[in-house]
Structure formats: C-alpha cells, structure tokens
Amino acid sequence: MERHEFGAAVRQLREKTTPATVGLPVGRRRVQGLRREELGELAGMSADYVRRLEQGRSHPSVGVVNAIARALRIGRAEYERLCALAGYAAADGQVPTDIGPGAMRLLERFTDTPMFVSDAAMNLVAVNSAFMALGHWDLTGDPWEWNIAWRTFCDPFSGFKQSAADATDHEAVLVARLKGALLRYPADASLAALVDEMRSRSQLFDTLWRTPRPVAAYESSAAFIHPDGGAVTLVGSLLAIPGDDLAALMLTAAPGSADAARLAEIVGDAGEPTIIKVGQPGPG
After folding, report:
1. Residue predicted with more confidence, 26 or 37
2. How confident is the model at residue 284 (pLDDT cuts 50, 70, 90)?
3. In this structure, what CATH number is given to the domain that contains residue 81?
4. Among candidate residues 246, 252, 220, the one with its CA nearest the CA of residue 234
5. Which of 43, 219, 244, 258 has a CA 20 to 30 Å removed from the CA of 60?
6. Segments forming the whole domain that contains residue 49
7. Are the C-beta atoms of 87 and 255 separated by less than 8 Å?
8. Higher model confidence: residue 197 or residue 214?
9. Is residue 232 part of a domain?
C-alpha cells in the first residue's frame, strides 16, 4: 500500500463529513468537516495518531480501518475502498443486499420507467411494477432465477431478444461486474458458487471469464416480447449506486417513437405503481 493514498482518503472523508452526520454539535466552525480531534475521539484514538495516518507516517491495522469507518459512518463502497488502500479485505466479505434510500428514491421517482436494482452479484433486489409489466421475466424455480447474469448465460428469457452487437456489450458488462464483485467479496460463498456453476453450465461464460472482453458501453438495447405478442424495443442504461454497492438499470424508449407509445400503454395497463422487493442471493 502507498500510505499517503490511505491517509489522503481518510482526510477527504473527514473533511466532507458534517458534524451533524456523526451526532456532534455544529456550532461555529473555522474548518470544513470534522476536526482531527473529533475523529480521534469518535474512533478511539489520539488526534496525533489521526494526523500521522493522514500524513502517511503510520500503517493502520484492520481494527483502525474499521474504527475510522464506523466513526465516519461511511457507506459500504467507501469502507471497501479504505480496506483496499490499507491492503485488507472487507471485514465480512459478504455482498450487501440491503436497498438503501438512494435506490428507493430512484424507484419511487421513475414509476413510468421500467427499472430494477441489483446487488454486486447481479441478484435483483427490487423492481418496479413498470419492469414487471414487460412480462418477460418468467420464474423457473431455479435458485438463481432472480440473477440477471445467470438468466443471461444459463437460463435465457424467451421474451428477450438482442442483436449480436448488443448481446456482446451486455455479456461483457455482466462478466466484468461479477469479476469485480468476487475480488471485493472473496468470502461470499454464494457468489463463489454462482460463478462456479455458471462456468460449469455455460461455455460462453467460462470463455469470457478466462478471457474477458473489454466493456465498450454500459448500455444496450433489446426487444421485449410482451405476452400479448407485441414487442417493444428499449435501451437499458446502468447506473451505479456506490454508497450501497448497488446498481440500477433503467429501460427507456426513444422519445416520440412507436416504442415509447407502446411502453406507455404497457405500463398504464399495469395499474397502480408499486415497488417489489424480490430475489434471493444464491441457492437455498
């Protein structure tokens, strides 16, 4: 580890953390964020030790990293970044599946846009009713039936069609995200089992796992075949929700197009907008 990188990260987090966020009185202040003394008190260490950490003159232990993360009340992604800079794996090594307020706000504000939220292992954790109205996500009873990577490589949807170019982009993103997740969560047995099973079941996935394609784009288009026989072509755009290590996929049609009109009809027929928590991370 370059010690100054960890120290710089701690200082940036300290300076952007408001006192109210960590339960301290605001009062009149001449410095931005928290003082070193305040972080030290919250984390159970001296202000001088905080200074030495920030200046790269001391290497933190696992306990120190965890104490700083707790004191600053940082999100999962920032915590993992601190761990990586310090040369440690995250404490529990499990893929987080809790849907935070940021993800919920997205689902609540775009009720007419098909959308799902997935965790780092590509398990869907929540969808809106507009997404389910597309009618393509059939449930098979498989342990990974709510995992988008599994459904793409091992159990494809009959009502989801992509061109070769779009499928290439889509597959590259899924493999890259799973590889990143496995590096960040090495102790997650369910994630490891998913990857092993996919490599066994899908020759294409195994090939891409061994020789990944570069990610050219984080969006691709697909035709969704509705159960009534009609089709609507939508573009899926992936949005990161870093604080909770989640991602949202939004499906949109070209404005003013026949697909946009068809999508509005499908969503309108779905009735009152709702948010549905779904999925299950792994077998069992």
Report:
1. 37
2. very low
3. 1.10.260.40
4. 252
5. 244
6. 3-86
7. no
8. 197
9. yes
